[in-house]
Each structure stands twice: as structure tokens, then as C-alpha cells.
TrEMBL record:
NCBIfam families tied to this protein: DGQHR (TIGR03187), DNA_S_dndB (TIGR03233)
Entry protein name: DNA sulfur modification protein DndB
Domain of life, per lineage: Bacteria
Amino acid sequence: MDVAFEYRFPAIRGIQSNREYYISMCPLRLIPKLFIFDEAELRPELRAQRTLNRARIPEISDYIVKNRDSYTFSAITASVDGGIQFEPMSQDVSMTRLGLLRVEMNAKFIINDGQHRRAAIENALKADPSLGDESIAVVFFHDRGLARSQQMFADLNMHAARPSRSLGLLYEQRDDLALITKEAIPRTKIFRDMVEFERSTLAERSRKLFTLSAIYGANKVLTENRPFENRTEVLQFLIDFWDTVGSHMKEWQLIQQGRQTSGELRRDFIHAHSIALHALGIVGRDLVQQFPKNWKGKLRKLRDIDWSRSNTKDWEGRAMLAGAIAKTNSSQLLMANHIQKKLGLELTRTVKDMKGANK
């Protein structure tokens, strides 16, 4: 190759499926220039990647810029469509894996995994050019044609599993509400030892009553648009609210006392599902706004609600559809509206309002 017209990457050489691949560290400023993504107009069968979802890009780029000292990215995987040559640093056996990867200047770099990271990096560089000197790992494979690139995409994503929402929240250190929720749970009588922290769904025989993700979601709407002086006030409010709610839920108390299993409760009652937690969050938000001084007393009427799933008169078409638990935003609001009526509250938002706002 003509050394005047080539890319040179310090790299480590490895072997996978009997063929060489190379790992290099690329400055972020080079990523948008090397990896040009212009496949969106091609038919799916002619692409080696999924169509770029541009709605994801601002979220990822904001993550980089707002967490300048703590953001983390996994490697970009790419195929090189063009001539490549690896020159070991030394002929010494122990050093033959370290060297220089030389790539023809007219070669094309095809992203097999990481096109959203590439686009987000390009966006973040516009907001903060100083990011350009930082780097990201890139894994290079020598391209073997479209079929091989498509298979690589399938293989890379076949066994990829996103962590559950609960597990992501368990390890989350930047979201203040996530941190407060995790602190509040062991201090809340009704949740203590009853929360699944790693999974976002509960097994039939699980002894846990709710998931971390369900409680977090409920807390998010519960604290929405309410001014708090500090995090201590938020923490105490969440503890007080859920302990008050729990004191009026006799079936929840039976779980804690070991007199009933959570699986039986989910089978027979609507308030053992995440939709009920979210609805109660909506109710709590509006309740505190309407009755800031005596909201706890208003919650006593929760005892008068028939939470059984057999109560189709109240729950079918609201929290249930054809007997199955509904999981839509409108069903959460419909359930909240029903609870609000039972508590004698003014409805601040209905499904009709929601549909109007989405037009």
C-alpha cells in the first residue's frame, strides 16, 4: 500500500472465528469523519444496520455532555471494506499482537454495531468540541461483503439483553429520585423486604409485592410539579405517603404477615399490580395539591374500595381489558380517576384531556 494515502491506527490484533480482528482507540473527533452513515434510504435487505432512530440521538448526546466526567461508552464495531495490513510492533512472539493497522484511504468503514453512538458523538461534539480529544474503542473486522456484515449485526444483537428497568435503577447514581426511592423503600413499613430490586416483572411464586421500577414510576408522578425544599423533604413525603396508603390496604399487610402469597394477591386483586401503584401516584399528586393539610385523612376511604379483580363493574374497561391487566397510560389514568371519585376528589385530568394534549 502507498503509505501516503492510508489511515494508520495503533491496534491490538486478535483472533475470533479463525479470522483476525483489531482493536484501536479512536479520538472522538474522528468518529463522524470515519463512519459516515448514509444507508437510511436503502431497502432493509441491502443494509447492514437498522435504520437510524434520530429520536434517540439527543438523549444519548445529552448524556455525554451532561455527564462530562462520568459518561461511559462500549466499543463501536465496524467492518473495513478495503485493503488493510497489520504491522506488528516487533517480531518478538510476545509483541506480535501489538502494532499498526494500515487501511487504504479509499476504504469504507461499515458500522455493524454503534451507529447511534456515532451520531450522538457527532452531536455532542457540536455542543462541546473539547470532547474531540477523548477516545472510544473501535473493533475492526475486514469486510467480507454485505451478507457477512448483516450476519455480524444479527450475531451482535442476538444475545444482547438490556438490563431490566429495575436493575438499571438499582445501579443508577445520577437520578436523584432513583436514589431517594432506594433510600425510602427500607424505611417504608409496607415496602420493607417486599420489593424486587433486580427484575421488572415478578415470578408467580415470588414473595415480593412490587418491583423497584414500579415504585420509581409511581414516585415520579407522585412528586410531579410539587416544590420541595430539599431531598430530605422528598424522602419523608414518600415514606409518609406510602405508609399511609399501606395502612389502608389490608391485603398488602397479609403479604407482610406471611398469611398470603404475593402470587395469590396478584391473581385475585388489582392493587397488587404496577398499574395500581401508578394510579395511586396520580391520586396522591392531586390529593396533596387539593388538600395539603389533611391529605392523609382522605386516604382512609381506600378501605372502602373493592380491589378484587372479580369486581368487573369497577375495573373492566379501566384497569382491565377482557379480564387481563391493562398496561396503557390511559388505563392508568382511568383507574386513577375512579379512585379519585371514591375519595371525593376533583378530577384534574381525564383521558379526554390526555387525548386532546396528544393531538
